[in-house]
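Q: Please design a sequence for this.
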């Protein structure tokens, strides 16, 4: 559907005014910097209320079908709304696995009953989703999943274990990859994909404490857990194909996400601002030529990432290595984010050793916490090492 610049400009003004008037006040407790740090009920309920408010105002799921709770308008409007959320520094829309992975998948290949059952609850924040892919002994070898799902009449019986299940303890549903046929010649052919409920006997979650001292991930255990046979998405044996499509959404290579902020976004400009009153050997650290060179490099990389996203939408600019930008996006962004946050701490000097809770920590230890949290993105959705292999094999054509 065609949208004019005037329409987008008018919409931008509307969204900006709404965000300004409705941005919540500081709740008086630490808010997650991303959806991977929702650790307690207090944070969850605050973020659930905020997401519901954004959706009710019409600024979330704008391109999803109206009959399932969406707005039914051009994705261009959602892009404007997302930019205004970042600009105004509002809280995250926490239900990211639903908004960005499960929802787009259901929208694209789900049945009408699946769309009617799941999509609206994802947008409203009522139904939290988690992901059951990684396993303790097979984290970077997804095709070797060992969790079993054996058919028993009108049910599947699930046994196994998943790890790094973001918000597993709060989730109502899980996108689950499990082995329905252990005897296939190719390991990929024995996998199936489920939209599994979490609140059934035999499913247990245990929170994992992270280096920040916070929570957000869980281990998930399945012990003779029974789920309805109609939780199967597609057909038995199609799990690998559907999982790969899910990972395309997760890694930012496919459109269709409902929008909203997945994490608190900080820029090189934000880093520079917090360094303005930092001195080294009696001189401003920002006057040091080596530091200035490091900052310029960071600015260039940040700008290249933004321009790369715009270039992706122009087919004529992607003929040399088709798919290279979307397939490498997750690796480029997560690693640049980690390096930038590490630089912000290094340039604080001795203050860089302080943390959240230390009275003299700069910005309350924001950058230290952000740096530790940045490792989640270099692991989740495929580690940086796995992402580098994907670029090597699927873009550059190098051997395994």
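A: Design:
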């Amino acid at each position: 559907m065609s949208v004019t610049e005037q329409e987008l400009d008018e919409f931008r003004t509307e969204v900006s005014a709404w965000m300004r008037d409705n941005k919540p006040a500081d709740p008086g407790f630490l808010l997650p910097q991303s959806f991977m740090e929702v650790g307690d009920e207090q944070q969850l309920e605050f973020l659930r209320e905020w997401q519901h408010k954004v959706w009710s105002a019409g600024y979330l799921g704008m391109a999803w079908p109206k009959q399932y709770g969406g707005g039914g308008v051009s994705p261009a409007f959602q892009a404007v709304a997302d930019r205004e959320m970042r600009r105004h520094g509002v809280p995250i829309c926490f239900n990211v696995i639903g908004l960005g992975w499960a929802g787009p998948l259901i929208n694209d290949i789900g049945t009408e009953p699946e769309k009617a059952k799941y999509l609206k609850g994802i947008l409203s924040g009522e139904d939290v989703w988690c992901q059951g892919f990684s396993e303790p002994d097979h984290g970077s070898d997804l095709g070797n999943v060992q969790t079993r799902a054996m058919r028993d009449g009108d049910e599947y019986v699930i046994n196994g274990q998943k790890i790094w299940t973001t918000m597993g303890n709060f989730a109502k549903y899980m996108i689950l990859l499990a082995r329905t046929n252990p005897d296939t010649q190719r390991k990929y052919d024995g996998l199936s994909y489920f939209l599994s409920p979490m609140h059934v006997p035999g499913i247990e979650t245990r929170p994992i404490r992270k280096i920040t001292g916070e929570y957000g991930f869980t281990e998930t255990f399945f012990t003779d857990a029974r789920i309805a046979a109609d939780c199967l998405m597609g057909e038995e044996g199609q799990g690998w194909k559907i999982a790969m499509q899910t990972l395309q959404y997760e890694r930012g290579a496919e459109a269709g996400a409902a929008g909203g902020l997945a994490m608190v976004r900080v820029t090189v400009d934000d880093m520079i601002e917090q360094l303005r009153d930092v001195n080294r050997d009696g001189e401003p650290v920002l006057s040091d030529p080596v530091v200035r060179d490091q900052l310029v490099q960071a600015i260039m990389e940040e700008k290249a990432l933004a321009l790369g996203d715009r270039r992706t939408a122009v087919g004529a600019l992607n003929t040399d290595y088709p798919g290279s930008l979307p397939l490498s996006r997750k690796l480029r962004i997560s690693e640049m984010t980690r390096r930038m946050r590490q630089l912000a701490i290094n340039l604080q000097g001795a203050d860089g050793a302080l943390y959240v809770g230390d009275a003299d920590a700069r910005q309350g230890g924001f950058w230290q916490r952000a740096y530790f949290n940045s490792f989640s993105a270099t692991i989740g959705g495929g580690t940086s090492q796995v992402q580098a292999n994907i670029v090597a094999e699927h873009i550059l054509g190098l051997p395994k």
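Q: Thanks. Anything notable?
A: Residues 5-127 form a domain with the Butyryl-Coa Dehydrogenase, subunit A; domain 1 fold (CATH 1.10.540.10). The two ends are 42 Å apart (CA to CA).
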